[in-house]
Amino acid sequence: xxxxxxxxxxxxxLNEEAALLDDHLLDGWLGLLCNDVRYVMPSTxxxxxxxxxxxxxxxxxxxxxxxxxDRDMHxxxxxxxxxxxxxxxRRLDTGMAHAELPESMTNHVVSNVIAGQDPLDSELIRVRSxxxxxxxxxxxxxxxxxxxxxxxxxxxxxxxxLAWRYxxxxxxxxxxxxxxxx
Amino acid sequence: MSTSGLQHNPSATGLLSKEVFSQxxxxxxxxxxxGTCWLFVGHTSMIPNSGDYVSTAMGEDPVIVTRSQDxxxxxxxxxxxxxxxxxxxxxxxNSKSFxxxxxxxxxxxxxxxxxxxxxxxxxxxxxxxxxxxLIAAPRVTDFHGLIFASWVPExxxxxxxxxxxxxxxxxxxxxxxxxxxxxxxxxxxxxMPANWKLLAENFAGDQAHxxxxxxxxxxxxxxxxxxxxxxxxxxxxxxTGASYGVACNDGDGAPHGLLExxxxxxxxxxxxxxxxxxxxxxxxWVRDRQVARQSNMQAQGADPVPYGFHIGNIFxxxxxxxxxxxxxxxxxILWLPRGPHETEVWQWCAVNKDAPxxxxxxxxxxxxxxxxxxxxxAPDDHENFERLQNNLRxxxxxxxxxxxEMGRDKRIELDDPPNWPGTVxxxxxxxxxxxxxxxxxxxxxxxx
Lengths: 182, 448
Ligand code: FES
Ligand SMILES: [Fe+2]
Description:
The complex is a heterodimer. Chain A is an alpha+beta fold. Chain A is 29% helix and 35% strand. Chain A has one domain (4-43, 53-169): Nuclear Transport Factor 2, Chain: A (Roll), CATH 3.10.450.50. Chain A contains five helices and six strands. Chain A has a six-stranded mixed sheet with strand order 2-1-6-5-4-3. In chain A, a hairpin with a 6-residue loop joins strand 3 (105-117) and strand 4 (124-136). Chain A is globular. Chain B folds into two domains: 39-140, Rieske Iron-sulfur Protein, CATH 2.102.10; 163-444, Naphthalene 1,2-dioxygenase Alpha Subunit, Chain A, domain 1. Chain B has helices spanning 10-13, 23-32, 119-122, 158-162, 165-173, 196-205, 210-213, 215-221, 235-240, 265-278, 280-299, 357-369, 378-392, 395-398, 431-444; strands at residues 15-16, 39-43, 52-58, 61-67, 73-77, 92-94, 97-99, 106-108, 113-115, 139-143, 146-150, 181-183, 188-192, 242-248, 256-263, 311-314, 318-321, 330-337, 343-352, 402-403, 423-426. Classes of the chains: A alpha+beta, B alpha+beta. Chains A and B meet through strand 2 and helix 5 of A and strand 13, helix 8, strand 19, helix 12 and helix 13 of B. The structure holds FE2/S2 (inorganic) cluster and fe (ii) ion. FE2/S2 (inorganic) cluster binds next to loops of chain B. The site of fe (ii) ion has 5 residues of chain B, from loops.
């Protein structure tokens, strides 16, 4: 599925996004999202090896093809739409969200980008990427979040916009609570 | 040891010595508190079928909660009896047995040792397999789905231990009268660099922090941006109702603290409005729930009938979250001790088993968005707890006690106090926190 041209375009999009997040330009970041965006991040479990069909199903899930049961009845870390992401940004704007006072210093390092045409929807491209986000709260309080993302970017008149993001953190136990975006 | 006895009991003085958070206290409390109390280890809906298991922990000890072939629930120390290797490596699953990866001893899901390699070739007749099963918690009780275990073979039953909390759990928090709860798949786990007691006491009764620590949530709630956040009762709703704290087993026994037990038509009305935006089935459910809960509690003489609860802590380290609305899932939280300066938090989400799917979905969304690892509440608490803990690392800071005087000398007399079990207080009080350390001190002094 790898398409060099799409991979270059997707990489540019993801790098721009990372810069907005690291610069705390969160309204700019919201501007990169489609109005119908889904932004999900399950919790990580250590499970017995899965049979091939379960692996396939999990892969389908990462690209957003799952039934109500899968999506709606698991206790996840994020399951957001535009209005709830906007609410989170507005919360940080109140100046009273202690988790981000002072603002975390973050460095979103994005890598291993692979992009290709979405097989089901001509407007979408599918993008896999890896990230490491280094978070400094204050003094020597540092944590690193590591994970993978499965994104769907929509071609619009204004350029690429995020329509779907599935984030898999590589932390069965998170190093801290989360008040940032990936 | 200087932490023993009641000299650190803030019920007597309003003050708490920071020795309560020292390494010495920590070493002792693993045995005196976690080794003796009833501890929450899981929910029956996590292990519905025989062979199902889930890995959790009692204090620092990893345990496997299993349902054996005969349907019984067992709580087994996840340590091989031969050399102590971990026998179950997964968070959950279904299995007939657990086989140790070191020398291959195999155990049933009931914990019995059934396979020992080279048994005939190298062990004599004196080797008795029946003596070498996994260490099992001698007492395990299923309380309306909540599974509790204790390492001591004798002592108060779980119901006796819960005491005044039984009534609240049965009638209000676990929704027994309307079909009960079930836990949805998925557990959130995160590290919090603070002593577990600071987190547990917060959930037992810290009303005062809500307006300050969570000011951003209350403020953004008022902007009506997101419908899920709307489930949280807003200022107007709270203004017309009443909220109480409850100290269960006040002064005698295990202190379970409940916070913001809510009374008032406005909370019900608010839930009806929220439900209307979901659909008619949600409205019907909220209405049926109200009728069933109300008639059930009225029949037991409750006056007034409480509508919901915000949070609570079952001593020592099991907290529940309800957010005071029918449209929030019930959060089940374990504060697992990981040294005097660190806690590992485990959280699940329970939803009403018999509610329509649309309601169950909303309950899960609301809890995820609000009180969870990436929610709008917990990260702000995290930040404060971390700074508190830094004080406990400070040589000078450690010398000075913490203050728990709120609501001790001065209590607003309740005009018309509810007649519920336990000591009902104004919500703004540190009664429950004082009670928490009162009992902690008793256990540390060796009182059963
Ligand atoms: S340690 Fe388990 S079989 Fe030896
Ligand atoms: Fe809080």
